[in-house]
Amino acid sequence: MMSATNISGKLAANHDRSKAYGREISVRKLSPSVGAEIDRIDLSRPLASHEKLAIDEALGRHGVVFFRDQNLTPDQHIRFAAQFGPININRFFKSIDGHPEIAEVRKEPHQEANIGGLWHTDHSYDQIPAKGSILYALEVPEVGGDTLFASMYAAYEHLSDGLKHTLQGLRAVHSSRHVFGAESKTHAGENDLKGRILNPELATQDAVHPVVITHPDTGRKALYVNPNFTLRFEGWTAEESRSLLSYLYDHAKREEFVGRFQWRPGSVAFWDNRSTWHLALNDYQGERRLLHRITIDGVSLS
Ligand code: SIN
Questions:
Q1: Sorting pLDDT into bands at 50, 70 and 90, what band is 23?
Q2: For residues 33 and 153, what is the distance between their CA atoms, to the nearest angstrom?
Q3: Residue 121 Cα to ligand 1 middle (Å)
Q4: Ligand 1 site: residues with CB under 6 angstroms?
Q5: Residue 146 sits in which domain range?
Q6: Residue 223's domain is classified under what CATH number?
Q7: How many Cβ atoms from other residues are within 10 Å of residue 188's Cβ?
Q8: Residue 302 covered by a domain
Q9: Stated pTM of the model
Q10: pLDDT, tens digit, for every residue of 67-97?
Q11: Cα dihedral sign for 120, 122, 127, 128?
């Protein structure tokens, strides 16, 4: 995992692969399968139509897009997100004061557990899973606290035809209960996320989605199971599901499908939850890391 492609380090090498929009915006692919950095858009202002188009297209193509050196108030963050769809009010994350739309992703120097430290895609436990999430960094460790992203397009496309055929007919059960519910490690007191993760009584959702989805915007096929929220294949026991899910998880996090983003204050990552996984590295004990996340509603994947 730690040898995943370093997205920041790839910038110079891929600059000549950039695509220009008008004379201003550039989109630079940052690793072979996932991630692109978009330059010269100020996210604090309403987007011009060509800027919105550039972001939509890059998100569809690269799964996650990054912006540097942004300066967003909570209202500007919300206005940026709302240009891409209705905002989902997260029921488990503590929100920031006065802005229920913005979930706080915080780890204090004395805290050990981080939010998002297992590979996952946001809200797969919902009947209508989230389209995307927009994470804005306010304070980050000097070194560490990077986020890894993996392309579920690449994971699907590199399966054998035989396995693709088998998966095509399968659906999987996803749940929030074991992660956010009363039975979770957090609420059982086995980690120090309590206070940052709330409302265990609301973790009642189970949802069933196809194991292979056709992406609603791009029409590409993507693998749609993830280690944090997927419990089992529909109609199979958890025990029967374990080996095939483990195989898919090991396959999906192969280093050629993964990219790594190094945060700076003012960085923004906007990822597509239908075509990527992400994982926040927890390698910075004793330092604060604080980001604001907004999640955008999606559509049914069935
Ligand atoms: C998340 O899983 O939404 C948090 C990701 C991060 O903190 O990098």
A1: low
A2: 8
A3: 10
A4: 105, 115-116, 133, 135, 147, 278, 280, 291, 293
A5: 4-297
A6: 3.60.130.10
A7: 12
A8: no
A9: 0.92
A10: 999 999 999 999 999 999 999 999 999 999 9
A11: negative
240 CA distance to ligand 1 centroid (A)?
A: 30
Q: Is residue 147 situated within a structural domain?
A: yes
CA atoms of 112 and 125, how far apart (whole Å): 26
Catalytic-residue membership of 293: yes
User: Is 120 an annotated catalytic residue?
Assistant: yes
Please answer whether residues 121 and 93 qualify as being in contact, where contact means their C-beta atoms are separated by less than 8 angstroms. no
Strand partners, 271: 64, 133
pLDDT tens digit sequence for 128-137: 999 999 999 9
Residue whose structure tokens are 């029967």:
240
Does 278 participate in catalysis according to the annotation? yes
Find tokens 């920041």 and name the residue. Answer: 8
Task: Identify residue 190 by its one-letter amino acid code.
Answer: E
The three-state secondary structure class of 78 is: helix
* Structure token pair of residue 152: 């579920």
**Residue minimizing CA distance to atom 3 of ligand 1:** 116
Number of structural domains (the chain) is 1
In a domain, 154, yes or no: yes
Give yes or no for residue 149 having a pLDDT over 70: yes
Q: Which of 120, 123, 209, 215 is catalytic?
A: 120
Flag whether 151 is in a domain: yes
Matching residue, tokens 């919300």: 78
Q: DSSP for 205-223?
A: -EEEEESEEE-TTT--EEE
The tokens for 99 are 């802005």
SS3 state at 2: coil
Is 165 catalytic? The answer is no
Place of tokens 């986020």: 147
